[in-house]
Structure formats: structure tokens, C-alpha cells
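Project standup — Tuesday

K.O.: blocked on the structure for the chain from last sprint. Re-posting the sequence here as requested.
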Amino acid sequence: YLFEIGLEHNCIPYYDGFTGSYQPFFNGESVDDMSYLTTQTKLWKIHGSLGWHYDEDLKRIIRKDSNSEDMLIYPSTLKYDQSRKQPYTALGDRLTNFIKQDDTVLIVCGYSFGDEHINERITTALSSNHFSHIYVLYYDLQKDENNSKTGTLTTDSPIAKIALANSKISLFSSRSAVIGGVFGYWKLKREPNKDDSLNIDLYYDEDAYSNIDDEKGTEIEQKWTGEGELVLIDFTRFVQFLKNMVFPNNTEAGKHE
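H.V.: unblocked you, prediction finished:
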């Protein structure tokens, strides 16, 4: 319930496909309607949620207190079959229809493209729309033997192979990316000035200058490389970036949003 808690804590109206108060029931028709409650944030849980139950008497999905009978799709050989049932079909169709809309942009966070039934819906929808695009923020940082965090995305990573095969999927990781079906590493084109750095720091963390030594090992200069880490893959930093886009001049106690 983390998203629900966050939305309600900030008094943000949202709709999750359930209608009613006493025993809210899943309303598939409302999910299909793209114009339904346009002013509310939509919260679609494609893998189910705590508190979802199937009422045998009413023959429908309802929401009540969470228990051992919650409807969730867990990793198993039955996952694909389970995903074809309601409400998963309605929510999956919603995703497909959204991507098929003209000039659609979908930003993906926290999903590593490990579910084939979802991947198939995404790629099929993209193939039918020339102008839709998906941006994937992929958190790939892991600690190495020196206890330092390092990026793990390579061209052999399953998620990278998906992006390499589909130019409409841009994959962003900490040190590298796949854009337009091409794999590469992050690097600024030019050294930013002080004013630029204030904005760049919102989404990019430059590496420290590298030292250049002469033949005797004496340090003679520091070289700017432009290499660094994309911090937007961290969900907290991504939210801060979005806040800055919405409220670019908002200052409080001398702090810049």
C-alpha cells in the first residue's frame, strides 16, 4: 500500500479501478475508458494487490482487508495463465491501449522487463504506433568487492537486448544506456560552467578529474573526462528532478528545489 499511503498523505485524488465504499468492486469498464476521471491520478496494479479478493457468491473481484487469500501474481510457471484472468486482462489492455495512443510517452521505473506477458503487450503495442516511445530508468548499481557501487548493465543483459532490438525503447542505467538501438556510455560533450553545473547536478553526477602524470610520475595537470553517473535511475532523485521541472523557481529557506 506504499503508493496509496503516499498519495493519501499528500491529499492527491487517485483511482485504482475499484468502485464503491462498503465492499469496493473492480470496475473493468472504467479502466477501459481513457477519459474516465481525467483529473485523478490512476493507480493500476498489473500484478494484483494486497486486499484484492474474489467473491465466490458475487462472482467478482472486491477489495477488503488483506489476508492470506489476497490476489497476487507470484513468479511461477502459472504466471502467464494467471495474467490472462480478470482483473489482469483489463489492466493489461489498459497498458496496451495507452501505448497505442498517438505520441505516447511511457516512463518505466522499477521494472526490469522480466515478465514475458507484459513485455509482449508492450512490444506489440509499440509496433502498431510509429510515434510512441518508452523510457526505462533501470537501477543497476551493485556493490563490488571494494564495497563500492558500480553499474552492471552490459550488452548481454536481458533488458539491454530488448532495448537493442527495439529503437522505441530507450534504456537508461547508471553508467550506460541504449538509445535508438545503440549501446553507449554516459559522457558530457563539453565541460559545464558553474551555472550549468547547478542544473546538471539534478540528473548527472560527474566523475572527479583524473590526474595526468609526466614520464617521471610527477602530476602535471588534471583532466576533465565528462564521464559520470546518471542519478535519475534512483527513484528519489527522479522525483526531485520532476519537482524541479514543475516548480523550477521554488525556494524555501534559501534552498533551490
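K.O.: great, moving the ticket to review. Helices lie at 2-9, 28-32, 79-82, 88-100, 116-127, 158-164, 194-200, 235-246. The CA atoms of residues 98 and 104 lie 7 Å apart.
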